[in-house]
Each structure stands twice: as structure tokens, then as C-alpha cells.
Amino acid sequence: MSNIFLITSAICNDYGVYSYEERLNQLLGTIRSIRTYAPDSEIHLYDSSEEPIPIDDGVMLSNEANSVYTLYEHPYIRHMVGQGLQDPNRMAKKTIGEIVCLMTFFHTLKNQNKKFDRAFKISGRFKLNENFGKVDYSQHKGKVVIKERKSWYGETVFYSRLWSFDYSLLDQILATFDEIHTATMEEAVKTDTIRVLEYSMFKFFTKHNLPIDEVPLIGLEGNFGQDGAPIDE
User: Fold this and answer.
1) What is the pTM of this model?
2) S-S: 22 plus which of 5, 18, 52, 61, CB 3.0-4.6 Å?
3) Which 3 state secondary structure label does DSSP give 145?
């Protein structure tokens, strides 16, 4: 299979329990895990930090990934800096940053000629593991593949740490995220808050009847940024 990975990150921030150096090393681990468990894939890193990545670190990341895009000058990122949103855990900035990364990536895919079998999105502090190869993506042709929901976390969210879609769905995915983006910004204006992306993904993926396969095992491990809690799924 010919796959492309989007890694979303924001390593130059003060969110969570990890230092900049720890976040950078986690990000390198993400890239290297894809090279190990999905070796024929293209890897593109989109970073939505509020500040530029230091030059030497940016060069190092560029040597590891196919491309690195820093989006700190994007108008939505600049707009969020210093805003008065009710955002005690930086969820609003994280959500806007993630949407900026996703939208920029999807439009880039739309405007280039190269085709892939499947596009994956992975968050930069997580890594693929040996269980990734246990998912037979040939059985999910034409589908979005995402980690199955757990009732204890709520039935109205889709986990966004690692998910993917068949490349034939690119136009539908782009249209869906266009709507997520519009709804998110309208909510911010009306209520001074922003719903986390996992809720919006469930709402609008369902609304647009995207074909979705929820799988029990996706081959992902790592730690939550806000408290360091481990993930193995």
C-alpha cells in the first residue's frame, strides 16, 4: 500500500507536563515509529506552535520527515494568541491548531497530483507499535478507520490520536472539515468557548454519513500531554 501520514504537533508551547525537549523527542519517536511500522509511507509534519521551532531542531525534523510545515504565522494561530476564551487547559488553542493543521494538509493533498491508498493522521506525542501491522487495511477499502469508542468516555466522540481514510474519500473529508472549521469558529464567536475536536468529528462525520469502521486495535502507544497518562490501544 502507498500511504501518507500527517503528524500534527505543537511542541513550542507551555501546555501539559512535558518540557520542550521531551515533546521534541516524542515527536522524533512518532516519525521513527512510522518509518519502522509503515516504512513505505510519506510523512509530513504540520506544527501549530505559537512560536517557530528552533532552526537546528527544524533541520533535524526535516531530515527525518518528508516535509515540515510550521504554521505559527497562520492568521488563526495568531488570533488565538492572547484571546480571552475560557480555556483553562488550552483546549481552544489545541483545537484551533489541530484544525489549521488538518485543513492545510487536506487542501495540499487536493492541489497535488500524487495519489495514495490511505491517508493517516497521528498526533505527535504518540507512536505506532507492532500492533499497527495487525490491522488489515485492505479490508477497510473505501472507509474511515478509527479507534472504537468506549462507553466510559462517552458515545459522542471519535478519538483523534490516530485515524485514517481511504484516499477516495478525500473530497468528502475536506468538505466535512470545512464545516467543522466553520462551526467551531461560529461557536467561538457566540459563546467564547470551543468544543474539542473529538466531539465535532463525531457530529459531522455522522451528519455527512461518512463510511466508518471502528476497530478495537489500532497499534498506538504514548502518553497524554496534559498529565502523562499512558495510552496503549
Assistant:
1) 0.93
2) 18
3) strand
